Structure formats: C-alpha cells, structure tokens
Amino acid sequence: MTELSRLTLITGGARSGKSRHALELAQALAGEGRAFFLATAQAWDTEMAERIAHHRSTRPARFETIEEPLALSTAVRSLEGRAAVLVIDCVTLWVANLLGVGLADDGVKREGAQLASALRAVSFPTIVVSGETGCGIVPENPLARRFRDLLGIVNQQLAVAADSLILMVAGYPMRVK
Predict the structure, then answer these.
(1) 168 three-class SS
(2) Which CATH superfamily, name and number, covers 7-175?
(3) Which of 36, 21, 2 is nearest to 10 (CA)?
(4) Which one, of 54, 31, 128, lies nearest residue 86 by Cα?
(5) How far is CA 6 from the centre of its chain?
(6) Of the candidates 56, 64, 19, 36, which has an alpha carbon nearest to the alpha carbon of residue 126?
C-alpha cells in the first residue's frame, strides 16, 4: 500500500488471511498514531463468540476497538481528527447484520454507498475487510442468494471508492487495483 492509498479493500475467501494482512498494513501505517479497529461481529451463538474471542486475542493491543454492528458510516466519521489508521472487519458480517434487522435491498445498497462516501471523506487511511462470497456454488435458499448478491454489490461499491484492492489467496495478497 502506498502513501496515496487512503482506502484499501481486502477481500478473499474464508480463512484466506484477510484480517491478518489488514492488521499488518494498519500497523505499518499507524506509526506512533492511534490505531482503531471497527468490529462488526455479534456473538449470536457459542461458535461465533469463540471466533470473536480468537480475533480479539490475535489483535495487537495498540488497536482501540469499537464494536458497531450497524452504523458504520457514523462510526467512521466519528474518528475524524483522532485516528491515524482504521481497520474495519468485516463488511460481510455488517451486510448480514443489516439483513438481520430487516433492511430491504435498496436500504443495504444505500448503506453501502454511504459507507463508501464516508470512507472517501475522512482524512485517515482505512483498511476494509470483506469476504468474497461469489466464487462458490449458488446457494440453495433465497435468503442466502440475496445475501451473496447484496454483499457482491456492496463490495463493488467499496472497490470503486478504494485506492487499493487486494485479493487474499491462501494467505498471500494479490494486488488487483
């Protein structure tokens, strides 16, 4: 990531190293400044609680964590003047959260556009993590297909706004943009 890369989107499959790579990039960018981590996960069950605990335990202590499952644009804007760098992990769960509170497709797309706009407006570099769900089989149920399609649209919105796009493959970053 160059100094001009204010917004980087990192995508890839499950367990591809997205979060690890995002934290490595953020630490390099933060210098002596404040590093923030915006977490979107919610512990709806034991397995998810364990995943969250694992992520917390591997996150460097210097990151100040903000847990925000829904209002990402507001949270991003609130860091103006305080953050040297921000990691958002992850858009995949954020889109699932938006669907979980009953947001219609147009609402999810609007939220995605607002997030992209907020990320372009702030002065600090941001690294956004999102899953790549469109490379697998077509899900068998309508809700899963809707989620996959909406996440793909939001990922596209963020990719257009991003200065840098990285696809993680088996732990290795591939620069796409």
Answers:
(1) strand
(2) P-loop containing nucleotide triphosphate hydrolases (3.40.50.300)
(3) 21
(4) 128
(5) 14
(6) 36
Amino acid, single-letter form, for residue 148: R
Per residue of the chain (177 residues), what is the pLDDT tens digit? 444 469 999 999 988 999 999 999 999 999 899 999 999 999 889 998 998 898 888 899 999 999 999 999 999 999 999 999 999 999 999 999 999 999 999 999 999 999 999 999 999 999 999 999 888 888 899 999 999 999 999 999 999 999 999 999 999 999 999
Nearest to 126 by CA among 65, 156, 83: 83
Cis peptide before 135 (omega within 30 of 0): no
- Round to the nearest angstrom and report the end-to-end CA distance of the chain: 10
Catalytic residue among 20, 34, 55, 77: 55
Q: Is 54 a catalytic residue?
A: no
- Sequence-distant (≥ 6) Cβ neighbours of residue 118 within 8 angstroms: 72, 73, 76, 77
Annotated domain spans of the chain:
7-175
